[in-house]
């Protein structure tokens, strides 16, 4: 038997291709800064040359109207606010992530069982609504404005942070205000979970801009492996990398 | 009209671990085998973009498409069952390799106590320990009889492990040595030793070193990449059917794998299976595949459903406790505790699916239950599987679910919390069972499977006990704050708990109370074998697949024997004997 502490890189074809694709030939063993010193070079170059701010052509809308987008930005920012630890949902581009997801299979419940009839369910039976997520979300956004107008005589984006929190709280508890066809809770759960997803999913989905969500968490994203580092008694800080790195 | 194909020796319904094992063993014997798999084909090449938490762990990229097929669910027999509209509590596999592609790889042997649970419990604690609503029964096979098959599966998968002082006795060492004892594991081992418990390294299908199995397949060394559970392995380092038994079967030239083929019916005539009917899910075309032996390897849920749908075996009735198909559905009681550490940061984002350390002091009948209000127990483990940020937001219970405080605490505790979890055993109850739904249909027009299941007093008591032990361990490990898990009032289909569903087509020594004999051969239909955790008469205190693999290797032996003898392989009676 071989000493289990000795790194043994598998030499199969798939892995070699993987390394080639990722453009990083460090033998697959990620030790502390080894990759860290590789990855940020590109970014450093950019900063130094003071080049024009790169345009992200993905930052446009597939589903929301401008108004819906702004309401989503404001609401998600309350769920995951900017603070001294780092950017909030807005800075992370969470609303772009939500827009892109609602436009696709997730928003259309493509993998959900959507046959009727839909009965009222016990809490343990899970949601039964046959309304698509994209529709629940749109109705929820409208509800945020309707309720804000009713209570504060202003639309949601114009409210103070405290007022916005109050509105979201009401939606979370789902007693005071009703939407047509869905509960405010259904909308709020979707909003909350999609905010977390947008903050931490790979930047390829439109959120987690510049991997800033991962950086706040000290999460290094997609690394090859930690065969050596895992024996480290100290916390190992590693520059994150995303799936983009695999494209060479 | 379905197109009738040429007859083959054997057809398997599903090509995951069990289907792959059967295909390999039969094909090596020169039998021609067709494997029908409802999902697509896939291999290591498909996993180059696998480090994507969102796609695979959150959106279940490799799992069952519930738009085509799901189950209906209710807690109690008098409630209305409603469809599980998206996956939640468990994540059945779909696609070549089944859930064996995206499992963690914890690979256990059930305890000798498990296989004779009824007689041993009665003997030690009297006949009324649980009461007669709990339908526990012996499995019709002993540990000693099953031991060689456990080893066979461990050799195929190259399992990395070390001696478990409280576990089932082994005749051989594990094929490969244990994985690394990372600082997190070391800390658990030290603490549990202080508590006079018996820690050891969790047996793992993520291999500690490169290994060639007896069939000549190579499994690579694990890279501790932290994207294991719910992901495929891009290194070919996690034992899966796709890198072991399926290529072994293919090499013989006797195995034909047909992906995208959803079986809708087992055909039979005069008490004999004649083949299966299936749909090509891409074109919608229907085919009949005749075979001398039909083998259901489609996981617990569809093994049961296909029998009920094809009117094979007697359906279980909870009112009379008669009938067998659908009986003794069990689950896993996932007790545990989380510890929060203020001043320490752990490398918990690194890891491997089976990187863990365990104590078995509270498993099976390893501790005395005389003064306890439950039987059995569970393995207690710390695992370092790789924490990822969408799914892992451990915060103390009093933290709000969103807003400034949530953000701050979820950032703070991400690398400052550790959990000890139990694979708590699950005992059958007369009202927990599987049947066919009367109202909801799948994409092919067939009734969905209906699950009726709730936690029992046994479950609640066991959960509480094991969670307390887990909390004690975390305290000894130095956590500043420890929170024990609490069981929900009723079983809830929404939050993920475990893909360790068991029962429905259980094994035993009596056709009145079991569906298959100890070769997984159906009592009622000699040429129909039903393999998987569906055969478990209850669920033990471990993950199931080591035991599933053992049963599959035994079944393969049985099928080969049956091909020669063409009869029931086991004589049905209480004093079981081979015929
Ligand atoms: C996330 C996750 C983690 C897990 N971790 C562990 C672990 O650490 N340890 C452990 O012991 N177990 C674990 N398991 C469980 C383990 O994966 C299963 O026990 C094992 O895969 C069961 O093998 P099987 O052959 O019975 O079923 P599967 O491997 O699921 O294969 C069944 C196959 O049948 C196919 N099928 C179903 N119905 C049909 C049909 N009608 N027609 C054609 N094909 C059909 C399915 O698509 C599937 O591919 C885990 C499971 C999951 C989901
Ligand atoms: S942890 Fe190991 S076995 Fe699991 S996917 Fe990563 S490299 Fe493969």
Q: What can you see in these coordinates?
A:
The complex is a heterodimer of chains A (248) and B (579). Chain A is mostly helical. Chain A has two domains: 11-42, no CATH class; 66-113 and 123-216, no CATH class. Chain A has ten helices and no strands. Chain A is globular. Mean pLDDT of chain A is 85; it is low at 1-48. Chain B is α/β, with parallel strands linked by helices and 579 residues long. Chain B has a single domain (3-578), classed as 3-Layer(bba) Sandwich (FAD/NAD(P)-binding domain). Helices cover 22% and strands 21% of the residues of chain B. Chain B has helices at residues 17-28, 53-58, 112-115, 117-125, 143-157, 183-194, 245-251, 299-309, 404-413, 457-476, 545-565, and strands at 3-4, 8-13, 33-36, 71-74, 82-83, 200-201, 211-212, 218-219, 255-258, 261-269, 272-280, 286-296, 327-330, 336-340, 351-359, 378-385, 417-424, 433-441, 447-452, 481-484, 502-504, 528-530, 570-571, 577-578. In chain B, strands 1, 2, 3, 9, 10, 11, 12 and 22 form an eight-stranded mixed beta sheet that branches. In chain B, helix 1 (17-28) links the parallel strand 2 (8-13) and strand 3 (33-36). Chains A and B meet through helix 1, helix 8, helix 9 and helix 10 of A and helix 2, strand 5, helix 9 and strand 18 of B. The structure holds flavin-adenine dinucleotide (FAD) and iron/sulfur cluster. Iron/sulfur cluster (SF4) binds at residues 206, 222-225, 227-228, 231, 233, 235, 237-238, 352-353 of chain B.
